[in-house]
Amino acid sequence: MKRSNKFKLWWREIQMIGRGLISTKHVVLAHIIPTRRCNLDCAYCNEYDNSSPPVPTDEMIRRIDRLAYLKTSIVTISGGEPLMHPEIEKIIRRIRHHGMIAGIITNGYLLTPKKILSLNQAGLEHLQISIDNIHPDDVSKKSLKVLDKKLQYLADFAEFAVNINSVIGGGIRNPEDAEVITNRAVQLGFSSSLGIIHDGNGAVKPLNRREERVFREIRNYGKHSYSRLYWFQHNLARGLPNDWRCRAGARYLYICEDGLVHYCSQQRGYPGIPLEEYSFADIEREYFSKKPCAPTCTVGCVQKVSVIDHWRDPQTDPADLRSHRPEALRKIV
Question: Which distant-in-sequence residues (6+ apart) come within 8 Å of 282 by Cβ?
Fold first, then answer.
């Protein structure tokens, strides 16, 4: 990534954080799904199928416009495999048209020099790939052996920030692979992170001794590595709950391929309101709603966004909030 691009993105992110601290009346991050279809079938994943058609581009544009109306700061395109959408660049351009930060989460298989250049031209700013192991197995095909050439393409051609996410838990056979993957990411000049794989309900089991050793090792990589872990994972690694205020449905939105707003990828169905009808009153209600799944949640993007508001505005049971009109709630900052 060019130095000038790094500075521009850094400044936009600082502005985004400042805006989030000043006001709670807008969405900070939205994940949006342009296709549920994926070219892989990782055993632990519950976010894909192998048959769904892509969402029509015109409909995706309308959804992006609605997110802009809700004053969203960052839009990350996910899936399924988002690069399987035939007009993914047009979707990215629409995000940037509204001044929102544009990101994508991909398995990386479809990256070529030509595709990376087209993502540059569309204005992509962030790309993340999760790499699960060194060699593919029946749990995951997202292996360093297969993807290393794609990483080199990114190092050579990408004008956007790249993060490589390695994982432990969830049936990954060799947790030590995460150390090799993290080292390779740092070597190529990418940022790196470590995820603890959740089960089908978005919860996590305590790490075993091997996994815990890897967890500690990567945590101590040093300032040159971006793989130092946020505090949520320290408790999760030991099977302990976290005490935090999940702002899903307010500061974070997950919009599925059907255009419905959900708390996150692991809690689909709630609140289940069409994005075109989602309002600032819905944001206010969900901002104050306590989420029963929060203590053992492993959805890192929701956790990190919610940290902005951890110090303010306690939450209560959703049933109590829904018994009142949204306007009757105490006005938020």
Answer: 249, 261, 271, 273, 326
**What residue type is 63 in one-letter code?**
R
- Give exposure, 211-242, as e/b (b: 16+ Cβ within 10 Å): beebbebbeebeeebebebeebbebbbeeeeb
pLDDT, tens digit (0-9, with 9 covering 90-100), for 277-294: 999 999 999 999 999 989
Sign of CA dihedral 215, 216, 219, 224: negative
Q: Which of 309, 333, 304 is closest to 31 using CA atoms?
A: 304
Q: Which residues pair with 131 in a beta bridge?
A: 166
Q: Where are the alpha helices (DSSP H) in the chain?
A: 3-22, 57-69, 88-97, 113-122, 144-157, 177-187, 209-219, 232-237, 280-287, 300-306, 318-322
φ/ψ region of 108 (left if φ > 0, alpha if ψ in -120 to 50, else beta) reads left
pTM of the model: 0.89
pLDDT digits (tens, 9 = 90+) for 232-259: 777 777 778 889 999 999 999 999 999 9
Using CA atoms, how far apart are residues 199 and 174, in angstroms rounded to an integer? 18
Cα(253)–Cα(70) distance, integer angstroms: 11
For residue 324, give both structure tokens: 């009142």
Question: Among candidates 81, 78, 83, 85, which has minimal Cα distance to 38?
Answer: 81
Q: With CA atoms as reference, report the closest residue to 129 among 150, 158, 100.
A: 150
Q: Are 81 and 38 in contact (CB under 8 A)?
A: yes
Are 63 and 33 in contact by the 8 Å Cβ rule? The answer is no
The arrangement of strands across the sheet holding 126-131 comes to 191-196, 161-168, 126-131, 101-106, 74-77, 29-32, 252-255, 260-262, 271-274
The phi and psi torsions of 74 (rounded to 5 degrees) equal -130, 135
